[in-house]
């Protein structure tokens, strides 16, 4: 299996866990943060939405203008934006060939180029960072009054 195919398989597998964690958040408590320095649950959700939109941009345009925070009004809207970002990322990934997967692109924050790397390296960075932020977000759920979903196996809240 080549790297691009493995990436698509991995991304497809991680999307459900990402979505389940977002959906498990108590909608009225998205301002919860465990520490003043930590991102709130809502900020983490907006960041994860941005990661999926970043991947779609990378696969269609060959670069990322990083969306550090995507605004949304409700948890339902956040889930719709996340779902659309995932669909767009998977659809545009299907249009990436071996050459485009290897071509270097910029990862920009504002006007600053933070990194220039092959598309495959940028894609893996965004996916692994999404998994990292999902882990952060999953630790917010129980203190917010929610139930932590199963991600790679049962959680204490999903075991019967």
Give structural notes:
- It is a single chain.
- This protein has a single domain, classed as Four Helix Bundle (Hemerythrin (Met), subunit A) (Up-down Bundle), CATH 1.20.120.450.
- 56% of the residues lie in helices and 9% in strands.
- It has five helices and three strands.
- Strand 2 and strand 3 form a beta hairpin.
- Helix 1 (3-23) packs parallel to helix 5.
- The model has no long low-confidence stretch (mean pLDDT 96).
Helix content: 55-70%
> What share of the residues does DSSP label as strand, in percent?
5-15%
Report, as a whole number of angstroms, the end-to-end distance.
37 Å
Determine and state the CATH class: Mainly Alpha
Structural class: mainly alpha
CATH superfamily: dinb family like domain
List the helices and strands and how they pair.
Elements: H1 3-23, H2 41-61, E1 64-65, H3 75-93, H4 98-102, E2 104-109, E3 112-118, H5 119-141
